[in-house]
Amino acid sequence: MNPRQLTFHILRYNPDTPKQAPTMQTFELQEEMGMTLFIALNKIREEQDPSLKFDFVCRAGICGSCGMLINGRPTLACRTLTKDLPRDISLMPLPVFKLLGDLSVDTGTWFRDVSLRTEAWIHTEKVFEPKAQEERMDNETALNIYEVERCIECGCCIGGCATANIKPDFIGAAGVNRVSRFMIDPRDERDEQQYFDVVGSEDGIFGCIGLMACDDNCPIGIPLQGQLAYVRRKMAVAGWKR
Ligand code: SF4
Ligand code: SF4
Ligand code: FES
């Protein structure tokens, strides 16, 4: 089979030169066997335009830095094979996050802010004893925590979320998932009312409209639908008790 000629339509915009309006630039590239978007974008940058900005670190779906809109859908570019895409490929930066240029966005500041807002650390009155034996936890709870802690902070669930796109302070599925991780951890001594102060609002779980784009788009399959339902249920009870 002859290799395909791919046409990339890539958003170009530099926030440092705001007078220059955003444009879609077209690049042609011959497809190669096993080509990922990581390979394609690097080829375009090396051979056609060294000023093209995008982010990749691990190239293996681990670091979460290469989330972008690929033909309108938020996902990881390093794990996307061109053979799974049509000949025409449009690439846009993830919305919601601060644009650094072209396909590169700053997800780090957003996630740091969510970590601070949700106080994403174990809250306990116990004094840390460095020499004490590690506390035991039942296997099922440990596995549940492990499951939701796999989030790589790629931002795909945020970029595809209708609420996050119109409400800048909405914590999104990744933020709710973060809260849920501490709710199920028996070492965290926060009660439901304390969690309600964190997530029981329209910028928290009650801003979610439940259409599950987050769950559809999470590239590593975190069960976001279940996490959202779990936190919503807990917060509805806490709100009712208030
Ligand atoms: S279900 Fe909620 S968090 Fe998920 S995409 Fe929809 S509004 Fe956003
Ligand atoms: S929950 Fe999934 S989609 Fe959202 S940031 Fe984490 S890994 Fe990415
Ligand atoms: S480069 Fe690390 S997830 Fe894609």
From TrEMBL:
<dbReference type="InterPro" id="IPR006058">
    <property type="entry name" value="2Fe2S_fd_BS"/>
</dbReference>
<dbReference type="GO" id="GO:0051538">
    <property type="term" value="F:3 iron, 4 sulfur cluster binding"/>
</dbReference>
<dbReference type="InterPro" id="IPR025192">
    <property type="entry name" value="Succ_DH/fum_Rdtase_N"/>
</dbReference>
<keyword id="KW-0004">4Fe-4S</keyword>
<dbReference type="InterPro" id="IPR009051">
    <property type="entry name" value="Helical_ferredxn"/>
</dbReference>
<keyword id="KW-0408">Iron</keyword>
<dbReference type="InterPro" id="IPR012675">
    <property type="entry name" value="Beta-grasp_dom_sf"/>
</dbReference>
<dbReference type="Pfam" id="PF13183">
    <property type="entry name" value="Fer4_8"/>
</dbReference>
<comment type="similarity">
    <text>Belongs to the succinate dehydrogenase/fumarate reductase iron-sulfur protein family.</text>
</comment>
<dbReference type="GO" id="GO:0051539">
    <property type="term" value="F:4 iron, 4 sulfur cluster binding"/>
</dbReference>
<protein>
    <recommendedName>
        <fullName>Fumarate reductase iron-sulfur subunit</fullName>
        <ecNumber>1.3.5.1</ecNumber>
    </recommendedName>
</protein>
<keyword id="KW-0411">Iron-sulfur</keyword>
<dbReference type="InterPro" id="IPR004489">
    <property type="entry name" value="Succ_DH/fum_Rdtase_Fe-S"/>
</dbReference>
<keyword id="KW-0003">3Fe-4S</keyword>
<dbReference type="InterPro" id="IPR050573">
    <property type="entry name" value="SDH/FRD_Iron-Sulfur"/>
</dbReference>
<dbReference type="InterPro" id="IPR017896">
    <property type="entry name" value="4Fe4S_Fe-S-bd"/>
</dbReference>
<dbReference type="GO" id="GO:0051537">
    <property type="term" value="F:2 iron, 2 sulfur cluster binding"/>
</dbReference>
<dbReference type="GO" id="GO:0006099">
    <property type="term" value="P:tricarboxylic acid cycle"/>
</dbReference>
<dbReference type="InterPro" id="IPR036010">
    <property type="entry name" value="2Fe-2S_ferredoxin-like_sf"/>
</dbReference>
<dbReference type="GO" id="GO:0022904">
    <property type="term" value="P:respiratory electron transport chain"/>
</dbReference>
<dbReference type="GO" id="GO:0009055">
    <property type="term" value="F:electron transfer activity"/>
</dbReference>
<feature type="domain" description="2Fe-2S ferredoxin-type">
    <location>
        <begin position="9"/>
        <end position="97"/>
    </location>
</feature>
<dbReference type="InterPro" id="IPR001041">
    <property type="entry name" value="2Fe-2S_ferredoxin-type"/>
</dbReference>
<keyword id="KW-0479">Metal-binding</keyword>
<feature type="domain" description="4Fe-4S ferredoxin-type">
    <location>
        <begin position="141"/>
        <end position="171"/>
    </location>
</feature>
<keyword id="KW-0560">Oxidoreductase</keyword>
<dbReference type="Pfam" id="PF13085">
    <property type="entry name" value="Fer2_3"/>
</dbReference>
<dbReference type="GO" id="GO:0008177">
    <property type="term" value="F:succinate dehydrogenase (quinone) activity"/>
</dbReference>
<dbReference type="GO" id="GO:0046872">
    <property type="term" value="F:metal ion binding"/>
</dbReference>
<keyword id="KW-0001">2Fe-2S</keyword>
